UniProtKB/TrEMBL annotation:
Keywords: Hydrolase. Residues 389-400 have a biased composition (Low complexity). Pfam families: Metallophos. Residues 1-25, 372-400 are annotated as: Disordered. The lineage of its organism: Eukaryota, Metazoa, Ecdysozoa, Nematoda, Chromadorea. Its EC number is 3.1.3.16. One of its GO terms (cellular component) is nucleus. This is Serine/threonine-protein phosphatase. One of its GO terms (molecular function) is protein serine/threonine phosphatase activity.
Length: 400
């Protein structure tokens, strides 16, 4: 920055300019690294989490200060917690089922704060409340997250750190299922790795990215609520004939291509109701040509799986919905997508599904925050790869 100056005054002036510029830059460029943290200090997830809530994600001007060492310790803690879940993780109602988050940190905060009413985008108090009472306030809530925490949006690191914190502190109350973006080949390409490199520097960013993927390999691939509601990121599989099939999936599963059932649980899609195949009475699994891997399944396949597994409902995520959610024709499967105004390119609502103690359902909608638009647009949001995965931006089921 300093040009070859001749006089001391100029140098001082230039130094000041550089210093001011640096200060300014720190305000606008998110940095998650703090260099001066005592290396001998034991990792304290509660204090980490409390500090995390001071992230001013609403202002979008600064990020949390973490050390790389803390991040690695956080990931180790999450791995230990995931090991205690089965591959089919269980949860009791009442609880909230959350679909794709994709780095939309503000929306994640709003979801964690949703209690009884629709989530008001103007309710900024929620974030302040979380900041103040976050950790303790979470104790009575139970959440089943359907995966895709990272990629696409600008705050993947903040999102994944927060849910890892909650998983470590309340392992039985927060179930974090693995989405197709919690796989290395995908989060290499769609933003998470790049975000870590931007925030941590190239070498440490890659190290932490590798470590995150170690943790992803331990995440459960499906969840079961009250023994009757089966949850996963993508959908069902011709290889799914009993709940025991899911429990038998061995982890760590670094590459989901190595397990056909896990691959389908993370990647498959229901055939759209308008598709002629879906009115076929015969259970059908056809090649998923949109994704280029895994399968699509029709309503008869859903009904057959519900019967075979002796369950009531399947809840999955993985496809953006204009209204935040969508039922299959016979209402045996519901898609929940929780990232409103996905990638700032869609006018979709987000939704979460509340399961009451008696097993009945209600849907809570998340409207996009107008602040979201103003402050996020153009700030490091990874480009859409829709051309690769979906034909048209007008589709009501863009792939995610
Ligand atoms: Mn997905």
């Amino acid at each position: 920055m300093l040009n070859g100056s001749n006089g001391e005054n100029k140098t001082l002036r230039d130094n000041k300019t550089v210093r001011d510029k640096t200060l300014r830059d720190t305000k606008t460029v998110p940095s998650v690294v703090s260099a001066n943290k005592n290396a001998d200090e034991p990792f304290d997830v509660i204090s980490f989490c409390k500090r995390h809530f001071r992230v001013d994600a609403w202002a979008n001007e600064r990020s949390q200060v973490y050390t790389v060492r803390e991040l690695l310790a956080l990931i180790d803690g999450a791995i230990e917690a995931f090991k205690k879940d089965e591959s089919l993780a269980t949860l009791s109602p009442p609880c909230t089922i959350v679909g794709d988050i994709h780095g939309q940190y503000r929306d994640l905060i709003r979801i964690l704060f949703s209690r009884h009413d629709n989530i008001d985008p103007k309710n900024l108090k929620a974030a302040r409340h979380m900041e103040k009472f976050g950790v303790e306030n979470a104790t009575t809530s139970r959440f089943m997250f359907l995966g895709d925490f990272v990629d696409r949006g600008p705050f993947s690191v903040e999102c994944i750190c927060l849910v890892f914190c909650l998983k470590i502190i309340y392992p039985k109350q927060y179930i974090l299922l693995r989405g197709n973006h919690e796989t290395k080949a995908i989060n290499f390409a769609y933003g998470f790795r790049e975000e870590l490199m931007n925030k941590l520097g190239q070498n440490e960013g890659v190290d932490v990215w590798e470590k995150f993927n170690e943790a992803f390999a331990w995440m459960p691939v499906a969840g079961l609520i009250g023994g009757k509601i089966l949850c996963m990121h993508g959908g069902i599989s011709p290889g799914l004939n009993s709940l025991a099939d899911i429990r038998a999936i061995e982890r760590p599963l670094a590459d989901v291509n190595d397990n056909k059932l896990a691959l389908d649980l993370l990647w498959s899609d229901p055939i759209d109701n308008l598709n002629i195949n879906s009115i076929n009475d015969r259970p059908q699994y056809i090649k998923n040509v949109v994704r280029g891997l895994s399968c699509c399944f029709n309503d008869a396949a859903i009904a057959e799986t519900i019967k075979k597994l002796n369950i009531d409902l399947i809840v999955r995520a993985h496809q953006v919905q204009d209204n935040g959610f969508k039922f299959s024709r016979d209402r045996k499967l519901i898609t929940v997508f929780s990232a409103p105004r996905y990638m700032l390119e869609n006018d979709n609502l987000g939704a979460v599904l509340k399961i009451r103690e008696n097993g009945s359902l209600s849907i809570k909608l998340l409207k996009a925050s107008s602040r979201n638009l103003k402050s996020d647009r153009g700030k490091g949001t990874p480009k859409s790869d829709k051309s690769k995965t979906s034909g048209s931006s007008k589709s009501s089921s863009l792939t995610t």
